[in-house]
Amino acid sequence: MLKFRINKNAFLANLHSAQRAINGKVVVPVLNFVKINVTKEGLTLTGSNGRITIETFLSVTDEDAGMIIDEVGGILLEVSFLSKVLSELPNYEFSLEVLENNIVNIKSGQTDLHLNGMNVQDYPKLKTPSQEKVLKLPVSFFKQVIKETNFAASTQESRPILTGVCLKVEDNKTLVSTATDAHRMSRRTVELPHSVENFQVTIPSKNLKEFINVFNKDDEEFEMFFSSTQVLFKTKNVSLYTRLLDGSYPDTERIIPKNFKTTAVFDSQGLRKVMNRAALLTSVDNSRSIQLELKRDTITLYGNSPEIGNLKEDIEFDKKEGDDLVISFNPIFMSESLAAFGEGKIEIKFTESFRPFVMSLESKGDQFIQLITPIRTNVAMPKK
Amino acid sequence: MLKFRINKNAFLANLHSAQRAINGKVVVPVLNFVKINVTKEGLTLTGSNGRITIETFLSVTDEDAGMIIDEVGGILLEVSFLSKVLSELPNYEFSLEVLENNIVNIKSGQTDLHLNGMNVQDYPKLKTPSQEKVLKLPVSFFKQVIKETNFAASTQESRPILTGVCLKVEDNKTLVSTATDAHRMSRRTVELPHSVENFQVTIPSKNLKEFINVFNKDDEEFEMFFSSTQVLFKTKNVSLYTRLLDGSYPDTERIIPKNFKTTAVFDSQGLRKVMNRAALLTSVDNSRSIQLELKRDTITLYGNSPEIGNLKEDIEFDKKEGDDLVISFNPIFMSESLAAFGEGKIEIKFTESFRPFVMSLESKGDQFIQLITPIRTNVAMPKK
To answer: Which of A14, A353, A372, B262 could form a disulfide with A56 if both were Cys (CB 3.0 to 4.6 A apart)?
Structure first.
């Protein structure tokens, strides 16, 4: 039966990745277990909550892992205890051996531990997507796209499709990533380094976020495989399976205004700090709305909380053109947008008080667009 | 009315100290407010939950604070919002001015904020202890004594007196700090640098813990004043008032065994790591008990959790004398004891399986004693 010796930290690094798919809230008890599988090639650890599965592979030739395999095989172990107890082991390495009745013996230094495991056959089978449509990209490239759009997805289950990020390839070479919660939207367009078949899928944003955590070698390339119900992201050592969301993603193009009456340019991170201060005030009583007043020579923010008090701030801007305007919106949305844009000059284009406005980073133009819907408010803002 | 200008970070550092006494769970709304009081001498901030009060003073001569006082006075402001919004201010300094109706105007850079304050007269009056009995000690000296005993106090309100730490001066020069939760006890004896009147008080351990957080200049001296109901710890810039616990502290001397049948010496931190591993196992199903078996040539720890599995560990020791013994106890208690002892050689003296055992650090002898009561257990430990 399974017996091997391995470097503790190498094992733990892989375990922590696989563990990210295990959330402890599952109805199926076996999904609180990690699957440990050892072949002549090396060690595979699998964690899953049924909606996302993360698999890590450690090669027997990996020198840091220093794996010595006496006998191949598999076992299931409860992941949270395993992870904690391994961290506390006295030695830099440990041995793991499966005994009778799925009892697992772990030895390290003077420590001799027996854990109750489960038969590896009891683990649910993974359906592997067909390998027909393949996208191949640098990890860092895709991480950036995720960070730029993922945050705008909905966290409400009322419209499940909006909890996902829509990934679409057009013209065999343009990848468009879109997320919206119906109140704001982020859309990033990037040219692919090589031509691929067109496709469109909607991936749960929570699972997509795990891509950032699990693929930690930014200089690697990953491959993406599809089936009709799931997608697999895969590098040499890590596989992430996620289900796809059913239903068709809404057409977001038609909600983007094309004509504007007022435009202004700001320093992105300076504006973000203003929004963060305003967000403090509005989050207290959940009014979540501030008012921006664009006049000939000034742009002023007003925030008001009946409980706490009120805020007035003259905002520095680089450029302003067009009509005067008063508009109300959630400052947290704008702060999150600006965080996604990063450093640079931000252009905001307004149509009118009750129409969505469009934000873009000057350096990226319409390749990176964000949209925020104003809040219709009757709250009179105090003006000093 | 009150008007001043001050360095933001200097103000915030003092606010964060005063805020430690405010826990947001009070029935009296005014105790969610910080009291801001400015005299010609400087700024005093006061936070309180009724059981502990922390007051900080910032002198007008303090160069880092750069305080400019236009008008003296006082105001109350809700502390958690104030603390958050000040952290987000754009400038290194801000001005604060009280307007009509307790409205407070805070300005910093382009930010212009109006907060709803409360009249300073509405703040509860502090009773200051008489200045009769005074103890004067270095901050670092007293912090160490707190750390060595405070953790052993009870967190259960069933015997309120045990939630405190008993501080006692004997023979005008010996300070004894004792804490116990009836299952374990820590007692630290230190010689005072100067002679004082004898006293005995019991201070809530939670409040004593704040001493460590609030007095952050280890090289300062503090003074301690008493009344029959409270105690005041005071340095030049910080005052901490805490109520005392009613009732007489139990006589702990009589529970310390005087005759021993088995003694062993361990490396403190090595033993602690063993206990931490064992604690992981026992904390899963709240059995909270491990078994230590002392034989002629070996000392072995056994832990067992029906759910998870079992642990066996041969423990390294420096010396062992006396009878063979099997004893069960909570490994978390021993881990916490060893953390309080710090580095060094630990002597453990056992009487018998169902009697408390005594631990001491070789370098400190009976000046620092800890005691743990064994657990009577019928759980058969598996032995391999």
So the answer is: A14
Residue B206 sits at the chain A interface (C-beta within 8 Å):
no
User: By the CB < 8 Å criterion, does B85 face chain A?
Assistant: yes
Q: Which residues of chain A have pLDDT under 50?
A: 384
CATH architecture of B3-122: Roll (3.10)
- CATH code for the structural domain at A134-243: 3.10.150.10
Identify the pLDDT of residue B228.
83
Return the SS3 of B87.
Answer: helix
> Whole-angstrom Cα distance, residue B72 to residue A327?
40
Q: Where are the domains of chain B?
A: 3-122, 134-243, 256-372
pLDDT of residue A384: 45
CA B262 to chain centre: 33
pTM of the model: 0.88
What average pLDDT does range B44-57 have in this prediction?
94
Whether residue B129 is predicted with pLDDT greater than 60 in this model: the reply is yes
Of A112, A113, A310, the CB nearest to B114: A310
Fold of A257-372: DNA Polymerase III; Chain A, domain 2 (3.10.150)
- Residue A383's CB is within 10 A of a number of other CB atoms, namely 10
Contact: A110, B316; criterion CB under 8 Å: yes
Question: Hunting for tokens 């916490």 — which residue is that?
Answer: B336
User: Amino acid identity of B83?
Assistant: S
When mean pLDDT is compared across A302-311, B47-56, B189-198, B371-380, the lowest value belongs to B371-380
Cβ of residue A280 closer than 8 Å to a chain B Cβ: yes
Please give the single-letter amino acid code of residue A308: I
Residues 6+ apart with CB under 8 A from B216: B17
pLDDT at A134: 80
Q: Does residue A346 belong to the interface with chain B, where contact is any CB pair within 8 Å?
A: no
